[in-house]
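Quarterly update, task 2.4: acetyl coenzyme *A-bound model.
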Amino acid sequence: MNATITGTGSALPAKILTNADLELMVDTSDEWITSRTGIKERRIAAAGEYTSTFAAEAARRAISMAGISPEELDLIIVGTVTPDFPFPSTACIIQNELGACNAVAFDVSAACSGFIYGLSIADSFIRSGRIKKALVIGAEVLSRVVDWSDRNTCILFGDGAGAAIVEAAEDLKGILSTHIFSNGSCWNLLYQPGSGSRNPATDRSVDPALFFINMEGNEVFKHAVRAMEEAALAALEANGMTASELSLFIPHQANIRIVNATAKRLALPAEKVFINLHNYGNTSAASIPIALDEANRQGWLKRGDSILLDAFGGGFTYGSALLRWQLDPLNS
Ligand code: ACO
C-alpha cells in the first residue's frame, strides 16, 4: 500500500508583529533582523488563542480539501513543543474538536522536525496496512515560551499551524520516502528547561526563565545546515535522484541563511526553494506544513512534481520527506 497527501491546510493568528514593533521592545533593528535572519514579521496568538485553535482550523481546511469527513480519520498526529497542556495531548483535543471519533490521537515531540516525524509515522502506518486515513499537523504557539526581553531569541519565532491529510492509495505513490534522524548528544543546545520533571513548577516559586527557550544560536546554525544536507541527500539517494530533478525544495523556515546555505550545498537554484519565513518567522513544527499549504494554494505545485521537505530542530532532530505530488493545482 502507498500513501499520498490528499489535502493541505494552514491557519495563522491575525496579529502581526513587525521588526519595527520589535525595535520598540528590545535593542535591535529591522536591518539586523533582516540581514541575519530574513524575517520581516511574524504572527502572534491573541489571548484566548492556543495551539489547538490554529491546529483545528488548519485541520478543517485540509479535511475540506481532501473531501473526507472527520469520522473517516484513523489517526491524528500533532507535532508540537507548545501543546495546550503537558497532558492530555493536543491531538486528543483536536480529535474532540473535529468529532474524529474513530481516530487514535497522539502528539510527537520533535521540535521543528515534528511534522516530518508525524508524516513518517503516518506513512509507516499506512504502508503496513494498519490504517487508511491520517491527519498530520504541525502547530505551535511559541510566543508563550519566548523571553520577550532577549533579543537573541525573541526576533526569531512565530505562531501558527499547518496540516495534511495522508491517505492510502493503491496506485498513487505520493510519499516516495521519509527519513528521520536524532542526535541526542546536542539536546542542551536548544531546549526549554521548565515544566517537565527536572524543573517542575511549584506553588511556592516559579522562575519564568525556566519556561523560555534556551538556544546556542551559532551552534544550532552549524548543525542545522549539516543535518539538513544529510537528510536531503538521504532522500535523494534512496530514490536514485539528484537535486537537479527536484521541482521544489520546501525547507524548515528557520532563517534565510540556513535555507540558502543548505540550498547551496544541494546546488539548488533560488527559484526551486520555497520561502515564506519573511512573513511568519520560525514556527517550528508548523513551518513546513504552512509552507506546503501555501505552495499548494498559490499554484506552485502540479501533479507529478518531485517535492523535497527538509527539517531540523531541537533534540537535535532532523528529517526529510520526498513527495511525488498527486493533486492538480487548485485553480485548474
Ligand atoms: N539585534 C541586534 N543585535 C543582536 C541581536 C538582535 N536581535 N541578537 C544578537 N545580537 C548581537 C549579539 O549580541 C552579538 O553582539 P556582540 O558581537 O556585541 O556580542 C552580535 O549581534 C552577533 O551575534 P551572533 O549570535 O554571532 O549573530 P549571528 O550572526 O550568529 O546570528 C542567529 C544569530 C540569528 C540567532 C543565528 O545564530 C541563527 O539563526 N542561528 C540559528 C538559530 C535558529 O534558527 N534557531 C531556531 C530553532 S532551531 C531551528 O529552527 C533550526
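Highlight for this quarter: The mean pLDDT is 96.
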